[in-house]
Amino acid sequence: MSIENIPEIYLNKDEPVQDLFVYDFKMTSDVVKSKVNLSMNMFSFLQVGKKQVHFADASVMVNKKQSLLIRKGNWLWTELLDNDDIYYCKLLFFSENRLKEFLKKYTPKQESLKDEIPFFVIENDDYIASYLDSLSRMSAMSSSFNVNLLSVKFEEIMLYLTAKYGQKFELYLHSLISKETSPFKKTIESHVYSNLKLEEIAFLCNMSLSTFKRYFITEYNESPGKWLQDKRLLRAKELLENGELKASDIYLDFGYSNLSNFSIAFKNKFGISPVETTK
């Protein structure tokens, strides 16, 4: 299962990613599951079909009566037909700078949510339906006019949802602002669920393996091997419990060269085999 870089895959070759971007996604056959590297926060306004998204510690399923605001990151998602011959959603991507400008202009400075919740469920209504219709009509307008109008439309939907959901939505928006982290931690946390070995992560940190291990213990109070293994096995367990993936589908993704080693490590950690977890 290859990784899809979104929204980059929706752009023409060499076309730069704008800080506001709308894309109409349509399909006529079910997508089983996609690995997604989402580089911008994204509204997914679902109009026909179902969407399921798996995050590091949560999952959510919505139908055409709901939409999602999803924070940037690496996620797994499935798009499904629902008694129709087509799946359709309108995607609205926005940069962190756009979000900061909106928050500075319209919301008081406040604390964000303590936990980084990866999604916010939106109940579709007549206003949102009308809003999406207006976005569709914009496609016939000139590009320069479109850019300016999209800025207005972005503020419109953000203000509407703030009015609709109140402080809950405001807090969620503030939580989408990236927290300042050290370059070392940023590199580590970007590759927690990858299949990279310690030597490879140390290289990305511009450190020798021995220096990397010492620095890691200082930052995390635990050896990097155990810390990464625990994180990856917990994530693997979540995916297996969902029932849509088998151990043979994921062991390579978590840095194991063969299924046997993965199964042994999994059983040592949880007391049951991966096969028992999927039952």
TrEMBL record:
Supply the InterPro entries for this chain: ExsA-like_N, Homeodomain-like_sf, HTH_AraC
Molecular function per GO: DNA-binding transcription factor activity; sequence-specific DNA binding
Q: Sorted alphabetically, which Gene3D superfamilies does this protein's record hold?
A: Homeodomain-like
Q: Which controlled-vocabulary keywords does the entry list? A: DNA-binding, Transcription, Transcription regulation
Question: Which residues are in the HTH araC/xylS-type domain?
Answer: 182-279
Asked if the record carries the keyword Transcription regulation, the reply is: yes
What is the name attached to this protein's record?
AraC-type DNA-binding protein
Q: Which organism is it from?
A: Labilibaculum antarcticum
